[in-house]
Fold this protein.
Amino acid sequence: MLEVLGGAAPPEAIFERVHDRDGLRFLGFLLGYARLLRGDEIELVNQMARPYLPRVLPRLQRGTPESRGNAVLMLARMGMPEYADAVADSLTDDSPVVAMIAARSLFRPEHEEHFGAVLAHLPRFTVWSRRFLGSMLAGGGGAASPLLRYIMADPRQDALVRAVASDALRELNDLDSVPLALALVSTEQDRELVAGCLRILKHLGHRDHITTIVAMAEADDPVIRATATSALGAVGGDAETPLLLERLDDDSFWVSLEAARGLKALGSTERLEALATSDDPRALLAQQVLAE
C-alpha cells in the first residue's frame, strides 16, 4: 500500500494480494486512508478500491444501520461520482444516521445535481444540531445559495428548516440573502427564523438596516432582543450607544451580555469599566466582556 502511494508500484500491484473473499475487508482497510488523504493520493486509493466497490451495493439494503452507513461511506469516499445515485438512494434509509451520511456526502459542489434531493429531506434532519446542519448546507458552496434562499423565503416550509437555510446563507456570505432577511425580520413571527435573519444582518448588513434592527432590539422576545442587540454592536455606530447602554440593564442576562459586547465593539467602554468595579449584580458580566 505504501509503495503504491509512494509511486514505487502501480495500483494494480495490490490486487494479487487481495483474495476475492476479502474484498470488503480490503475496502474497510482503504477507507482508513480515504479519510485522511487528498489530491493524487486519494485518486490512487479510489483506483485500488474500484474493482471491489460493486460488492458494497447489496449492503446498502440490508444489515444494521451501522453496516449500511459504512457502506454508504465507502461509496461516497471512494466511488464518486460513479456511485452518486446509489448514495442518493440512501437518503430514504430508515435510519436518520445513514440518511445523514448520504446527505453530507452529496451536498458538495461537485454533486450539485443532488442538492434538490438532499434539501427535500431536510425536515427529517432537524433533530440534529442547527449549527451542524447549517455548516453542512454551506458546504454546498455558492451553487446552493439560490436553493437555500428559496427555502428561506417559502412560508410553506417548516420554520426551523428556513432558519437553518438562513444559517447556511450567512456562512456562505450570500449578499443576495440580505434583502430577504430584512423583509422577513419584519413579517415573520417564529423566533428561530427571525433570529437567523438578524444574524444575516449582523454579518452582512450595513447602516441602512439600522432602523429595522433597532425595532427588533425592542422586541418582547428576549432571544430576538439579544440577537438584535448583538447586530447593533456590529452594524451600529455612536448613534446606537444610548440604546446599547439602555439594553445593558435589560431583564435578560443574554441581552445585557450582547449590549456589553456591543459597547466594547464600538469603543464605548466607560460604563463597562465603572460597572466592573462596582457592587452591581452585572459587575461580573462587565468584567467578562472587558476581558474577552
Notes: The first helix runs from residue 2 to 5. DSSP finds 18 helices and no strands in the chain. The CA atoms of residues 134 and 168 lie 4 Å apart.
